[in-house]
Specification:
Strand content: over 45%
Mean pLDDT: 91
Strand order of the largest sheet: 2-8-7-4-5
Structural class: alpha+beta
Oligomer: single chain
Number of helices: 1
Largest sheet: 5 strands, mixed
Number of strands: 8
Distance between the termini: 93 Å
Shape: elongated
């Protein structure tokens, strides 16, 4: 009976060691994480709390377009800024993994008075024709 207990204890110990080594391998070594791109807008203070919502007619407002590559490879990005379906600006970047870029964009087309105007910022990845991510900034143009 003592011999069987020793064998069972040895098998349980080996199983525990194999389980611990497997978890360490999967978490630390093997797991590259999820592939994604962070795409965001910041206000003129590099924050997310004070986007221009009421823009004075003919004034210029600054926003910041940010991209962080978390794709675990080098990626080519294109950013297109559109207002009323018309292209206002286009930027091209090549970012390595974990590389970040923040580009100022000056909202200077506040000529027409009106509420609920829409600025669309599209992110394209590599040579794909459809937007990978889209951000919308709604604002009012006032006197």
């Amino acid at each position: 009976m003592k011999r069987i207990n020793k064998i069972i204890k040895a098998l349980l110990l080996v199983a525990l060691i194999v389980a611990i080594i497997s978890v360490i391998y999967l978490v630390v070594i093997h797991n590259p994480g999820e592939d994604y791109t962070e795409f965001y807008l910041l206000d003129s203070n590099n924050d997310t709390t004070d986007y221009p919502t009421n823009v004075t007619q003919y004034s210029i407002e600054k926003i910041i377009i940010g991209i962080i590559n978390k794709e675990h490879k080098q990626v080519n990005y294109t950013v297109k800024v559109k207002k009323d379906g018309y292209l206002q600006a286009e930027y091209n970047y090549t970012l390595d993994n974990n590389e970040k870029i923040e580009t100022p964009y000056y909202l200077n087309n506040a000529n027409v008075l009106g509420n609920d105007q829409l600025l669309v910022v599209e992110l394209y990845k590599d040579d794909i024709d459809a937007p990978y991510r889209t951000l919308n900034l709604r604002y009012n143009v006032v006197k």
